[in-house]
């Protein structure tokens, strides 16, 4: 009997402990999916990758990061129901889908120390056998004394080159003459490589693209003389020697009588202009 009473007391004690100290129910943390988009660019690539690593570390294990790459001007490849973080260098932009339901944010890694950024590239259409004109816009920070070598590339070929020596920080425009490889649409790349005087700052290679439609047809030029002259002849021959121009000449020999000089020959044309 005494032993049975002890068992009953022990059972009552366990029941009381269950009431006084209920079991703890642990609810697992909800995992959140996040899309992170890196804009494809050579500018600040190291800073961008470091920002992605820091972002993953800061979010912790309760977030699953889905990494995507996208080119400038694309629609951000983010799920419309997930938070979206865009990491770029501040110049490139992505478009967001109009039906997005989740928030989106843009992160621009802050670069410290000397740097030169390529912020713009414009190249004119040109004739196949003539030089084109290109403008490369740069910004420099801590770049005084540095030299930036600017090249225009068509594929792997360098078709134009110029250099800029920084005398102060700020914006700079570098004019580059370039020669087309062929007619038609061409994808050109402006590459700026800066060599800093600081030992801790290696050369930085940055690029920007532009599409140019190279025009093959030459410009039409009419040379009209009220009377024949050697000066006009020399100017006409210089134009005829340039493949950019299609020269037509007219020389008035008498009222209503025009000559049509050409390379090495002179013909008469009685048509009145």
Summarize the structure.
With 273 residues, this protein is α/β, with parallel strands linked by helices. It contains 3 helices and 15 strands. It is 16% helix and 44% strand.
Can you walk through the features of this model?
The protein is α/β, with parallel strands linked by helices and 273 residues long. A hairpin with a 2-residue loop joins strand 7 (147-154) and strand 8. The longest helix is centred in the first third of the chain and has 19 residues, at 2-20. The strands form 4 sheets. The chain has a 4-stranded parallel beta sheet with strand order 2-1-3-4, covered by helices on one side. The chain has a 4-stranded antiparallel beta sheet with strand order 8-7-10-11, with no helix packed on it. It has a 4-stranded mixed beta sheet with strand order 12-13-14-15, covered by helices on one side. Helices cover 16% and strands 44% of the residues. It has helices at 2-20, 45-59, 230-240; strands at residues 32-39, 63-70, 84-87, 104-107, 115-123, 132-141, 147-154, 157-165, 170-178, 184-195, 204-214, 219-225, 245-254, 257-262, 265-269. It has 3 helices and 15 strands.
Radius of gyration over all CA atoms, rounded: 36 Å
Question: Which spans of ≥5 residues are poorly predicted at pLDDT below 50?
Answer: 199-203, 264-273
**Which percent range describes the beta-strand content?**
35-45%
Arrangement of strands in the largest sheet: 2-1-3-4
Number of helices: 3
Q: Overall 3D geometry?
A: elongated
Mean of residue pLDDT values: 75
How many strands, which pairing sense, and closed or not: the largest β-sheet?
4 strands, parallel
Specify the structural class: alpha/beta
- What percentage of residues falls in helices of 4 or more residues? 10-25%
The termini sit apart by 139 Å
Beta-strand segment tally:
15
H-E order: HEHEEEEEEEEEEEHEEE
């Amino acid at each position: 009997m005494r032993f049975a009473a002890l068992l009953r007391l022990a059972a009552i004690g366990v029941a009381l402990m269950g009431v006084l100290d209920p079991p703890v129910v642990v609810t697992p943390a909800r995992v959140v999916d996040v899309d992170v988009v890196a804009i494809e660019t050579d500018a600040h690539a190291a800073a961008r990758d470091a920002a992605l690593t820091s972002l993953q570390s800061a979010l912790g294990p309760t977030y699953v990061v889905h990494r995507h790459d996208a080119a400038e001007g694309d629609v951000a490849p983010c799920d419309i129901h997930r938070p979206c973080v865009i990491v770029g260098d501040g110049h490139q932009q992505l478009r967001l889908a109009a039906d997005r339901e989740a928030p989106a944010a843009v992160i621009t890694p802050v670069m410290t120390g000397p740097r030169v950024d390529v912020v713009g590239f414009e190249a004119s259409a040109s004739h196949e056998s003539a030089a084109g004109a290109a403008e490369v816009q740069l910004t420099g920070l801590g770049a005084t004394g540095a030299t930036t070598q600017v090249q225009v590339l068509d594929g792997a070929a360098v078709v134009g080159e110029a250099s800029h020596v920084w005398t102060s920080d700020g914006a700079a425009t570098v004019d580059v003459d370039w020669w087309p490889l062929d007619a038609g649409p061409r994808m050109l790349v402006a590459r700026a490589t800066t060599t800093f005087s600081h030992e801790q700052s290696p050369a930085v290679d940055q690029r920007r693209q532009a599409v140019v439609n190279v025009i093959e047809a030459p410009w039409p030029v009419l040379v009209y003389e009220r009377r024949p002259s050697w000066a006009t002849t020399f100017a006409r021959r210089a134009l005829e020697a340039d493949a950019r121009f299609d020269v037509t000449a007219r020389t008035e020999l008498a009222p209503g009588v025009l000559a049509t000089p050409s390379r090495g020959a002179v013909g008469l044309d009685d048509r009145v202009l």
